Amino acid sequence: MDYYLVIPIHNEEAFLKSTLDSILLQTKLPKRVILVNDNSTDDTEYIIDEYIARDPIFTKVNSVSSTQHMPGSKVVDAFNKGLKILDDNFDFIVKLDADLILPNNYFEVIGTHFKASPNLGICGGFIYEQTESGDWVMNHPMDKDHVRGAIKAYSKACFKAIGGLKSAMGWDTVDELLAKYHGFQIQTDSSLKIKHLRPTGKAYNPNAKRLQGKAMYTMRYGFLITCIASIKMALKNKSVASFWNNMTGYLNAAKSNATYLVTKEEGEFIRNLRWTNIKRKIKT
After folding, report:
1. How confident is the model at residue 204 (pLDDT cuts 50, 70, 90)?
2. Distance CA 181, CA 183 (A)
3. pLDDT tier at 278 (50, 70, 90 boundaries)?
């Protein structure tokens, strides 16, 4: 199984070497690794150049964008700039973050899953983060069948069917919903433990707090499902403020007629899928 990696990188001088070293140690190496230097102001580009000189699988793309670390559009825009220089000669493609340490067999196992299941669309392992005591613990606040945005691997057929990645907050949820809409499966592998060197969201701009609610609007969740999802998130985060931020983001998006990420038909499928999952969880 041949695969490409595209890695959006913004000011990752502290972690990038660890990520690139773990790629070079893979038992199944990628055909190409596109390193997208997304407006970095630290020594990120020097590190990229060092690895390009070391191994021809690495290619650099420089991107000019905002210096603010916002979830969603910034990272996907950088990913898409890297994607433009790739051909279609791959079996699966991976959007990877630049602050991870992968197990050495990570992509060999991912490739095995794709080869074994023709309907498998998205696959990945689980993110672990280090506690103050030094222990590595799983950080996966979503359902266990969700693949985190930091480690998304897509089969070529699935990636084409969903139209690539959406340049908006919520891209790593809508991709899975659209994959299911097109009949693809999603699989996680608990044996694949990825070390995340920077806790999730630590570098994000504070203005990002209402974007989750906007994302729910643009995915056509509807008001009631957004309320339920926001309550669940608030309980999980132990933060009433996160509920109000979500709902404010949703209502502001509705007021401004924000552009939807999905069609009416896709939105209906998404709402039905969400209601089915809600009812299943209530029964259990």
Report:
1. very low
2. 6
3. confident
Helix axis angle for 223-237 and 240-255, nearest 10°, is: 150
Which residues of the chain does CATH 3.90.550.10 include? 3-196
Q: How far apart (Å, rounded) are the C-alpha atoms in residues 64 and 111?
A: 33
Structure tokens at 42: 């630290």
CA dist list (Å): 225 to 10, 19, 153, 232, 235:
34, 37, 28, 11, 15
The CA distance from 170 to 154, in Å, is 17
Coil, strand or helix at 200: coil
For residue range 146-186, list pLDDT tens digits in order: 999 999 999 999 999 999 999 888 899 999 999 999 999 99
CATH 3.90.550.10 for the 3-196 domain, yes or no? yes
